[in-house]
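Q: Hi! Curious about what Dihydrolipoyl dehydrogenase looks like structurally. Here's the sequence.
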Amino acid sequence: MAQKFDVVVIGSGPAGYVAAIRAAQLGLKTACIEKWTREDGKQALGGTCLNVGCIPSKALLDSSYKYESAHKEFKLHGIGLDNLKIDVGAMLARKNKIVNNLTTGVAGLFKANGVTSLHGMGKVLPGKQVEWTKQDGSSEVLDAENIIIATGSVPIDIPPTPLTEDLIVDSTGALEFTEVPKRLGVIGAGVIGLELGSVWARLGAEVVVLEAQEAFLSVADQQIAKEALKVFKKQDLDIRLGCRVTGSENKGQEVIVKYLDDKGEEQQITFDKLIVAVGRRPYTEGLLAPGCGVNLDERGAIFVDDQCRTDVPGIFAVGDVVRGPMLAHKGSEEGIMVAELIAGQAAQMNYDLIPSVIYTHPEIAWVGKTEEELKASGEPYKVGTFPFVASGRAMASNETEGMVKVVADEATDRILGVHVIGPSAAELVQQGAIAMEFGSSSEDLGLMIFSHPTVSEALHEAALAVDGHAIHIANRKKRK
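A: Let's find out. The predicted structure is below.
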């Protein structure tokens, strides 16, 4: 007789494991199927984010930043170091330990909350059943009152640069370089390309980033994006915009990449390693049995409504496998929303206030509308900015690059967007997101007391600058 569950979750990434835990907390008998397997053959929970995404990349970003700081900035603080070197093996071991701690932590949370963890593949069958294919190849059919699909995404491959074992790699392979490449190519100047390129550039690699789009970080506010491009060029990241890769030649120890530059002229460049980071696509291979009733949209994502319902009652989908930004925190909140809906509670996400972060140094982060979006819509707005070069706390820590930008409605003064490049950008934007969630005006932020000295004072001053009231910079004269 088939095992019966109130909820079966397929996938244990940030969307899936959070959904499973919340469903179990709400008294629902819950199982979570995950196919990821560690080198020792045991199940690894946490999906892409914990195993080969958000967490390991941040571990390497932090290690590489500390090395770069010691190499380039310690002298400014009166600290002398001789014979500084990077031990890549130790850096990778630290990263792997963090990953292991977090993935085993999810297993502990499953146990504490009563979630049944199943190792293997899950497939949605007609009649709200799930086929669980185990590691030994045998299979079992589970009966589910509700199904939550949370299978995530995988890196996009491109024909001109077929992946190899260690020469041409995707984002996963870029986390495993055993030594610093002398010449590193990165295809794609998005979040992943910039973060991974930064890691190896800080450790001494000569990094060239080839980006097909002519605009840098087109999804971000362009004032912030232009500032970021200037900063990255100062960091010796060679970012080439409007460059379309047309082919590659694997030479064994190096790869020749051919591309059309921004003038349409053919170029080629040689690298010791190449990272392909052109984006990710929803992962649905082997997931949907014919007749199950779950449909895909034109992008290959599972079609869902605003509350993540598929076309089949009782079947939901969350995270990277559905529409919207592929962000772990977006997937997690969708997972919670769906678990609460299944339990009969009212639940809704605010898709207008999902923060985005690029964990370079300085960080880049934003939430809400960009100035370009407001111009395109014709919505009247006003802007206040404050540079970190005028922040006492940023000066003290030698992190004065960048700015805070607050965009507000011209008539109501309600905050429409907060955009930051600089120290603690992600944390400052989260402060902005909290304010926006409660409908705050820029005047509200300006009236609040911010502790001194902190970098968050830059958000305070940018809010004051919206109406020309900033204290620590000269205010722009208002147009009459």
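A: A fun detail: DSSP finds twelve helices and 21 strands in the chain.
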